[in-house]
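#struct-pred
JK: can someone run the complex with iron/sulfur cluster? inputs below
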Amino acid sequence: MHTPFCFHKCHYCDFYSIVDTRDRQEDFVRRLSGELLSLQTLVSHPMDTIFVGGGTPTLLEARLWETLLHRLAPFILPGGRTEFTVEANPETVSPELLEILVAGGVNRLSVGAQSFQPQHLATLERWHDPANVGRAFDLAKATGIANLSLDLIFAIPGQSLDDWLADLDAALALQPAHVSCYALTYEPNTPLTARLAAGQVERADEDLEAEMFLATRQRLGAAGYQAYEISNFAASGFECRHNLAYWRNEDWLTAGPSASGHVAGWRWKNAAHLGRYLASTGLAPLSECAQPAPTTRLAEGLMMGLRLAEGVSAAGVMHDAERLGRADDLERAVNLQRQSGAIIERSGRWSISEDSLLLADSIIGALMHAVDP
Ligand code: SF4
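RT: done, structure tokens with the ligand placed:
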């Protein structure tokens, strides 16, 4: 579920979000409730996971969250069995809001820290006080949410390896159940990319970025976190089930402007336009809807599955490739990668070897090309 409001636009962000003026929150929640009601007529069973992202979901007023959670109740399994995550900005977490979230079934909070160092937050134009990350964690724990995740960004212009290690240590001090660490990307049409083009910031050196990536795995691994996905680390049993569903190419529904869905081979994206969304009724207006070709779906399955430490089922992938007449090409591509040690086979699954993770994009690309040239 996508909530499209933020209190400020971070310079690296290309998600659909608008600076909140508080005047459309109520209409938005009313419209989102209507969309959920329409979904409920199509899907009568509760969800294994729910993820509310954004934007900044915790910017919604507490009373509007109450309305939303009431509408979401039929989608939630009893006994806390639905993994229900809400993304949180450290500035907008309050005891009152947390109590409402917990009462409504939320049992996981994903806090966007990005960095604990003010100068790097300033480069990102990210507006929060790093001290409030710990405050948000304390409040969440006091309200009974133990499943807490932190998002961090590395390879920020001007960030040294020591700065990054200090960020990791600050994160570890909070004892999160889950940590996501992504290298900064320069998306088209963002202010940061414009500043890069204008020479106002300098992209991190490739070797430094690689060092940071490897240091992340080393530092978080030593602290007991499993690198269950290239950029995601979890204490045992705290892997994000919602994101695992994406990487395992499972089905998910969607709600809110610009959110994407995937069911039975169909992919769609709700239009990224709040005005159009508010003016519509029933299901959200779409900007894209397609059923990709079977070879594209197989390639996408490899792209997502090979990001995971568990990798993909060799027999499952070969079965699909055979059906599509791509088995010989795939086998050749996999054998080449296995000979170089880039792909390993363990318990009938193919995965990228630890030593080759820096080359993951090109390894995955070669396998995708073999099934979907
Ligand atoms: S808070 Fe998140 S969604 Fe909002 S502008 Fe910043 S990065 Fe984008």
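RT: quick notes.
The first helix runs from residue 25 to 42.
Residues 294-371 form one domain.
JK: thanks, will look after standup
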